[in-house]
Amino acid sequence: MLTIKSRDRNYTVETCADLPAALSSVSRPARAHYLVDQALFQHYGPALADVAGQAVTLVATEEQKTYEQLTPIFLELLRRGLKRDGVLVVIGGGVLQDIGCFIASVLFRGLYWELIPTTLLAQADSCIGSKSSLNIGPYKNQLGTFCPPGRVLLTPAVLGTLPPDEIRSGLGEVIKLQLLNGAAGFEELMADLAGGPASLPPSLPSDLLAKWTMRSLAVKQPYIEADEFDRGIRNRLNYGHTFGHAYESATHFAIPHGIAVLLGILTATHLSVRLGLATPAHYVDLKHRLAPWHQPYGATLRQVELAAVFQAIKHDKKNTGDAVNCILTAGPGRMEKRAVDFQRDLAPSVTEFIQHELAG
Amino acid sequence: MLTIKSRDRNYTVETCADLPAALSSVSRPARAHYLVDQALFQHYGPALADVAGQAVTLVATEEQKTYEQLTPIFLELLRRGLKRDGVLVVIGGGVLQDIGCFIASVLFRGLYWELIPTTLLAQADSCIGSKSSLNIGPYKNQLGTFCPPGRVLLTPAVLGTLPPDEIRSGLGEVIKLQLLNGAAGFEELMADLAGGPASLPPSLPSDLLAKWTMRSLAVKQPYIEADEFDRGIRNRLNYGHTFGHAYESATHFAIPHGIAVLLGILTATHLSVRLGLATPAHYVDLKHRLAPWHQPYGATLRQVELAAVFQAIKHDKKNTGDAVNCILTAGPGRMEKRAVDFQRDLAPSVTEFIQHELAG
After folding, report:
1. Chain B residues closer than 8 Å to A229 by CB
2. Does A9 touch chain B (CB under 8 A)?
3. Which of these, B320, B337, B321, lies nearest to B329 by C-alpha position?
4. How far, in Å, CA of A242 to CA of A227, rounded?
5. Are A77 and A55 in contact (CB under 8 A)?
6. For the structural domain made of B2-161, what CATH number should be given?
7. Smallest Cβ distance to B137: which of A75, A134, A139?
8. Which of B71, B110, B137 faces A67 most closely, judged by CB atoms?
9. What CA–CA distance (Å, rounded) separates B221 from B355?
10. A235: Cα separation from own chain's centroid
11. Do the domains A164-357 and A2-161 match in fold?
């Protein structure tokens, strides 16, 4: 069990045998209301049947994760009688977590909630750190809050039922965290994944994903504890995200988040070479090692209008003027934040990356 | 100047000569965007003209203060280019404060904001304490956040331009705070207000409202500093509010907030007598002394369906079961929180208060 330090309250990350075990471990079940990803009913219908009477079921899409689309969810929870001494239990991946965290942040000026993350991305990365993000109108991730759950209940067994792209999306963040951590962790991860995407569940040993889930959380924990509100060192967790978010947005979310982050990591590293921070050899090495993990979405990105990418980068909420704040790298474990001139450096590097580096 | 301690940041309450002085004192004006109560343009059009190009103007109604109605405001602020290093300047009364505070809480996961409160209620009470409340669908004040402004800029001169009911609404909270404080402050306030409602601005000396604004904030400050998140002692500031909120809601907000609070204070005191906590003499004394300040809204309340009042009380977000949490009183300066049985005590007392105590 991990205990994560947070301003509001410390919270725990506990491992449960499987989803039914996690459900029966929820606090104050008599007062619990549930937000559940509809996709889970395919594999876990019987287990979820017990809570279905107190559950709001959602389809986890980018469109659902909007300020506007939360209105009927608030109304349904209130109509069912959720009160301030209740518990909101959120079961799903990143989209469900964003929705549940935001609701818990603003309902009754703060509602106790617990999280059962069911994707690799949510288990290995987003479940700690207490962030939510919502879209509004054409603006992506501009709304959000910081509000940690009281408990995170991990269920590694659920990962065996995920589709391969979902696992690859999570691996994008797992790879990012090991790159942040330094060369040793990254090399060990690459060795464990040497079988390539073909080795993904059900053929990948399930304890391997559980191992890298805990290793990922261990890398992330000191960043979020030192800087919960993302004013300094925590920024480095955004390595690959300025570009990744833009790639998701410009392709209308045709690229899964973690895979867009991998493409964003390569872009940030390409830009780091342009700015004299990273060596060309590091970029080339990374490009070859990450290629199996973002295919075939590099081709998806090549087809997008560059103007759409640039517009999305300019709308990023991390920007504060004409320069764009990017996390750049000098190699594994050596990331730093820099304001990059858009016209002179960022646009040419992104253009070259998309038009030439992703070719065949 | 007051400095208010808060978890997020300490913040200041500063007094400015008038609204133009407050406007020119705003921080980082080049990056400021404004939310302005439309009613202010009647008296302060020229002063506000300078910021109108960066201002979203709102009509301060209960309908505007809803989750749903905030969407176009967020979109307009984003369209105009508000960024995370910007400042949101909120100019208006309680409704504008609720809207601005909520927006600042969730935009970019927290945006710096400053508040220029322009009603007596906002200046003397709500401007400190960092709360926001929003309605959603049929549910009143169920959403909200805690997010203090960086600075509160008081402009007592603005109070001279308010309509009498607006002043009386603010006086409701001023009276409540002095009742919380103890007999001495309450007696001094009653002496200052001996001229009755006819003495309100412009005939009331303007320095008297400024005096009671600062005296009110001085009473409120230790409560919110000791218990910013309303988990204990701060509850006492809700004296009169369980009933006051229900009276507002059941009359579709025909009764101004602070006047509903005065009626709620009398109800809570009436209930306190029933439960053996307050003496009948204290209730009768309070009833006669507060009567001039809630007339003619007692008559408004008498016309409402009791069922609507009871439904509103049951929906109050402070309730956690069948009992209703009320702040009761044993006299000035002696408030306490109790769970009151709805059927046995609360409903009979409220019925008697509305049907008999408000008669002629």
Report:
1. 109-110
2. no
3. B337
4. 19
5. no
6. 3.40.50.1970
7. A75
8. B71
9. 37
10. 14
11. no
Cβ distance of A74 and B136 shorter than 8 Å: yes
The domain ranges of chain A are: 2-161, 164-357
- Token digits for A83? 């009160």
Q: Which of B70, B85, B131 sits opposite A109 (nearest CB)?
A: B131
Q: Are B86 and B123 in contact (CB under 8 A)?
A: no
Q: What pLDDT, on a 0 to 100 scale, did the predictor assign at position B176?
A: 98
Q: How far apart are CA A315 and CA A310, in angstroms?
A: 9
* pLDDT less than 70: residues of chain A: 202-203, 317-321, 360
Instruction: Return the pLDDT at B318.
Output: 63
State both tokens at A104: 């818990």
Q: What CA–CA distance (Å, rounded) separates B25 from B109?
A: 26
Per residue in B304-314, pLDDT tens? 999 999 999 98
Give the model's confidence band at B274: pLDDT under 50 very low, under 70 low, under 90 confident, else very high: very high
CB of A227 less than 8 A from some CB of B: no
To the nearest whole number, what is the mean pLDDT of chain B? 95
Instruction: Report how far Cα A254 is from the mean position of its chain's Cα atoms.
Output: 16
pLDDT at B359: 78
A164-357 fold: Dehydroquinate synthase-like, alpha domain (1.20.1090)
ipTM over 0.85: yes
Second CATH level (architecture) for the domain B165-189+228-357: Up-down Bundle (1.20)
Residue reference for tokens 């309509």: B163
Q: Which chain A residues have a beta carbon less than 8 Å from that of B106?
A: 102, 105-106, 134, 143-145
Which residues in chain B are closer than 8 Å to A139, comparing Cβ atoms?
A: 75, 78
Tens-digit pLDDT profile for residues B206-231:
789 999 999 999 999 999 999 999 99
Q: pTM to 2 decimals?
A: 0.95
> How far apart are the CA of B175 and the nearest CA of chain A, in angstroms?
26
Interface of B with A in 319-348 (CB under 8 A): 319-320
Query: Which tokens hold the place of A280?
Result: 């060309």
Q: Which residues of A touch B141 (CB under 8 A)?
A: none
pLDDT, tens only, A159-175: 988 999 999 999 999 99
Query: What is d(CA A259, CA A173) in angstroms, rounded to the nearest whole number?
Result: 8
